[in-house]
Design brief:
Layout lengths: L1 E9 L2 H8 L11 E9 L5 E8 L2 H10 L1 H5 L6 E14 L13 E9 L4 H17 L4 E9 L3 E8 L2 H19 L1 H4 E11 L6
Antiparallel strand pairs: 1-3, 1-4, 2-3, 2-8, 4-6, 5-7, 5-8, 6-7
Length: about 200
């Protein structure tokens, strides 16, 4: 499965949200599995969207055929768009489904991992972080994606802000020490996103 992560800064909110409705045409595209997103809690005007595709080949076919027609409605409504593609490496909770049902909050962690520590980092995701997140009330589903050798995206969907907040306060620092995250990760950027139900496709 391919995970597409889009980040941009919106300059025309009304126009952007109107254009977002055009993406309702995606379910007819071969290989499309789901898309959703919303507004960054920390950065004014910043939007994050994530989309899931069966394979890179089907995604590339969509980009060559239909993408520009659907995207035309949002031209001029945003700036600083960044797009990253990741291959699914493992589920954060068993049986990941590319859907946003029941989720209010999306948490994204973008990690650049030191080359010699990639194996250790992925082992710690499996043995330390994943069980901790999977055991947290309110954590619905998640996935770890990898791009190239040392770039990873940890994506998790939560039922509420309160549940995600409890996990952060109670667990993150202790887990980071146990997993030796500081030794593995050269750079880490994260965001918490309030999902917009009307953007889910």
């Amino acid at each position: 499965m391919l995970v597409k992560w889009i980040r941009c800064t919106v300059v025309d909110r009304r126009g952007f949200e109107r254009g977002q409705r055009r993406w309702a045409g995606l379910p007819g595209e071969p290989g499309f599995l789901g898309q959703g997103g919303g507004w960054s809690r920390a950065r004014e005007g910043v939007v994050h969207l994530v989309a899931f595709w069966e394979s890179r080949a089907l995604y590339d076919s969509f980009m060559a055929r239909s993408h520009d027609r659907l995207a035309a409605a949002q031209l001029g409504t945003f700036r600083d768009m960044r797009v990253r593609l990741f291959e699914r490496r493992m589920d954060v909770k068993v049986g990941f489904e590319p859907q946003f049902d029941g989720a209010d909050v999306l948490r994204l962690a973008h990690c650049r991992v030191r080359e010699e520590r990639v194996e250790h980092f992925t082992l710690m995701q499996e043995k330390v972080w994943n069980p901790a997140m999977a055991g947290s009330p309110g954590m619905l589903r998640g996935v770890l994606g990898q791009s190239g050798e040392g770039e990873f995206l940890v994506l998790s969907l939560w039922s509420s802000t309160a549940e995600h907040g409890k996990y952060r306060v109670e667990r993150v620092e202790r887990l980071a020490l146990r997993a030796q995250t500081a030794a593995d990760v050269a750079a880490l950027a994260g965001d918490v996103v309030d999902l917009e139900a009307s953007w889910t496709v």
